[in-house]
Structures are given as structure tokens and as C-alpha cells.
Write a structure and sequence with these properties.
Elements (H helix, E strand, L loop, with lengths): L11 E4 L3 H12 L4 E4 L16 H9 L5
Parallel strand pairs: 1-2
Length: 68
């Protein structure tokens, strides 16, 4: 008898959970688009990422409810 296999499906696969990947995942989730983020690093990095935030970046964070 053949083994039953379960598969997870998604609409979008995002490679990398840096500032851009995390923001994209947040917006897609808000729109109801199923997404999975894959990150190769097992730990949180201590390297600075996204160290500058301009007006557009602030608006994106506000859109996700992450910046007041």
C-alpha cells in the first residue's frame, strides 16, 4: 500500500527574511495572499540591515501597523 503524503501549498515563496522579505511577507499576509519565507541563516543576524529609514520606509511600516 502506498504511503499518504501531505503537501503544503502557497501562493508566494519569499527567499530571505531581511527587511525587504519581511515587509513583503507582511503586506502579502495583510492582503490574504498565502506566503512562506525561507531564510538560510539559523540565527538572527547581528549585522546592521536597513539602517536608514526614509519617508517611504516609514509609510510602509505604518501600513503594517508597526510604526506610530
Amino acid at each position: 500500500m502506498a504511503k499518504s503524503q501531505e503537501w503544503e501549498t502557497t501562493d508566494v515563496l519569499i527567499c530571505g527574511c531581511g527587511p525587504t522579505g519581511a515587509m513583503l511577507s507582511g503586506y502579502l499576509g495583510k492582503l490574504g495572499v498565502r506566503n512562506i519565507v525561507l531564510e538560510k541563516e539559523p540565527d538572527i543576524t547581528t549585522d546592521p540591515r536597513g539602517i536608514a529609514l526614509d519617508d517611504d520606509g516609514i509609510r510602509f511600516l505604518q501600513g503594517l501597523g508597526l510604526y506610530a
